[in-house]
Amino acid sequence: MEFFKINNSNWKQYQTISNKSFSCGFCGERVASDRGYKIGRGRDGSGDQIGGIYICPNCQGPNFIDLNDIWHPGQLFGRSVKNVPDELNELYEEARKCHKENCFTASVLLCRKMLMNIAVDQGAKQNLSFIKYVNYLSDQGFIPPNGRNWVDHIRKKGNEATHEIKMMEETDSKDLLTFTEMMLMFLFEFPSMVEIHKPSE
Fold this sequence. Notes:
Order of helices and strands: EEEEEHHHHH
Oligomer: single chain
Number of helices: 5
CATH architecture of the largest domain: Up-down Bundle
Shape: elongated
Largest sheet: 5 strands, antiparallel
CATH class of the largest domain: Mainly Alpha
Helix content: 40-55%
Structural class: alpha+beta
Radius of gyration: 22 Å
């Protein structure tokens, strides 16, 4: 997109603007709105709309769409997982927040750290390489038998984010968050559900 500098005069008052559907970054609901504050191409805020602030009709939260069609704040990806140890859960939720703010490389690096911490939590030695931790999780049966391609993909992306001058993209972050969520559910949430529903003897 061509360079366009926004100044105070490009903003237009609260009004009816181009209708858009979006996932609210505050309440998480999928909504549509045509009310908000327009950024117009003209110096007085008139002309074609090129961005703006949309007010969520559900929670009234302000959602900003910038000149590159990126929403701020974004939406949390994945879901919270139950019964995860506090330290691991904090890392997981921090990775989700990084993804929400379009900080995809940070999200990938946090997921990488999480997988190392998960391996140690499940009995691996400390101070091993990332590859050895991922292999440990696979060899010990914490990853499904048909998940080997996932293991190779996670290992590759984790090393790219750490050792190469390369920014991670949204799909990279989503892949690692999905894999991490699956691991947390498999190791912590599902076993706790069995305990909760175990019949009395």
